[in-house]
Write a structure and sequence with these properties.
The protein is an alpha/beta fold. The chain is 25% helix and 37% strand. It has helices spanning 52-66, 78-85, 101-116, and strands at 3-15, 28-40, 70-74, 92-95, 122-130, 135-141, 148-154. A 7-stranded mixed beta sheet has the order 4-3-1-2-5-6-7. Bound molecules: the ligand Nc1nc2c(c(=O)[nH]1)N=C([C@H](O)[C@H](O)COP(=O)(O)OP(=O)(O)OP(=O)(O)O)CN2. Ligand LPXRUNBV is lined by residues 17, 24, 28, 100-102, 131-132, 135, 137, 152.
Length: 158
């Protein structure tokens, strides 16, 4: 039996989408919501997979230090990197791909969570990024292969 818990973390960040071809090529920001779905092999004496506060400390700690109130930029976006490099202080986090909600969920699942949860006995199996109240993307680990699977959804009528 798999026991899954979820912790929601809120943060704000700026970005732009390289080659978007529309308004999202401009610098803009979002109040993001990140839902971390975490599983563990065992429960502790209290009955927890991991204490919610420990989970929060680990993942929010990383987000607060790296993404919150920062700009997420594609490594190929030289123009944005140069521009933001002229601003002091400024927090810039360079991603190996465009900072879409899909790729942010993927990065948090594949790169950040294994490090942040190391030694906790828990592992992230799904990360959902809400970019607006109406749109989210999520990355999840296939339980058999362990590969990441992507999913995104936008509310009807938007
Ligand atoms: N599949 C994805 N599509 C888009 C993403 C994304 O991450 N994944 N991101 C964007 C932009 O970041 C944009 O800011 C959000 O787009 P959109 O939903 O069009 O923005 P609004 O909700 O503000 O729409 P309005 O029409 O202005 O109300 C684009 N696409």
């Amino acid at each position: 039996m798999a026991l899954t818990i979820m912790r929601r973390i809120k943060f704000c960040a700026g970005h732009r989408l390289l080659h978007h071809g529309g308004k999202c090529e401009n610098f803009h920001g979002h109040n993001y919501v990140a839902d971390f779905f975490v599983q563990g092999e065992t429960q502790d004496d209290v009955g927890r997979v991991i204490d919610f506060s420990d989970l929060k400390r680990r993942v929010k700690g990383w987000i607060d230090e790296n993404w919150d109130h920062g700009f997420l930029i594609h490594q190929d976006d030289e123009n944005a990197r140069q521009a933001l490099g002229m601003v002091t202080p400024s927090r810039v986090f360079v991603l190996p791909y465009n900072p879409t909600a899909e790729n942010m969920a993927k990065y948090l699942l594949e790169e950040m969570s294994p490090v942040a949860l190391d030694g906790s006995g828990a592992r992230a199996v799904r990360v959902r990024i809400w970019e607006t109240d109406e749109s989210f993307a999520e990355a999840s680990l296939d339980p058999v292969s362990g590969n990441t699977e992507m999913y995104s959804e936008m509310a009807m009528g938007e």
